[in-house]
Write a structure and sequence with these properties.
217 residues, mainly alpha, two-stranded antiparallel sheet, elongated
Length: 217
């Protein structure tokens, strides 16, 4: 009886994994060269590739699932061996599948900021406003940086290669507009709370919930 080896399972998609796979579409590469190319093409503004360790971890995960393979090890005297990686055919198919999913999927994204907003009442109104003002300052810096990046786009570069910066600009502008409105409401007292008010709201909704779900119902 011949036992067949189980096929590698497909890992959960990740932005860094996707970019690594597509980068290897251009040809085999070692991690150092990959990191430098990411920086040269501004992919470090899209995913976190500052840590080479995270790149190695991602590649190892992709290898475990049969999406990437080692094709060569280059030995240079006095230097660590350089492992050259290549994308497999399964990796090419998976990369395109991930790309399609990431373009149309909106579920499963849970930013930290949304979680923090849901618990804004955990701080006093003035303290919450101060933290949001810090966020406003940082977003304003991000927006200025993004606008500068777009302004410095090489003449003749097709728009296809600046879409991520256009999206970043649009999203930051929208968040800044909303955030400044919330900060203004906090500053002027239109949005406020106190411990007594929070307890009152909690009691009201607890009573309403008990009426909607009577014991034994």
């Amino acid at each position: 009886m011949v036992l067949s080896m189980p096929k590698p399972t497909t890992p959960h998609r990740s932005p860094l994994g996707l970019i690594v796979l597509f980068q290897l579409f251009t040809g085999p590469m070692h991690v150092y060269g990959m990191q430098k190319l990411f920086e040269a093409t501004a992919k470090d503004r899209v995913v976190n590739v500052r840590s080479r360790a995270s790149l190695y971890q991602t590649i190892e995960r992709l290898m475990r699932h049969g999406l990437v393979e080692v094709v060569e090890t280059v030995r240079v005297e006095g230097y660590p061996d350089r492992v050259i990686y290549a994308v497999t055919e399964s990796g090419r198919q998976t990369a395109r599948e991930w790309l399609r999913e990431m373009l149309h999927t909106t579920e499963g994204e849970y930013p930290e900021f949304l979680a923090a907003l849901s618990l804004l009442f955990g701080l006093a109104p003035d303290e919450a406003r101060a933290e949001l003002e810090l966020r406003e300052q940082r977003l304003a810096t991000t927006l200025a940086d993004t606008k500068q990046t777009l302004a410095e786009t090489p003449p003749g570069l097709p728009r296809l290669f600046t879409l991520e910066e256009e999206y970043r600009r649009a999203m930051v502008e929208a968040e800044l507009s909303w955030l400044r409105g919330v900060i203004g409401d906090l500053r002027d007292g239109r949005l406020s709370w106190s411990e007594a008010w929070l307890r009152q709201i909690a009691d009201q909704f607890e009573i309403a919930n008990d009426q909607d779900n009577p014991k034994g119902g």
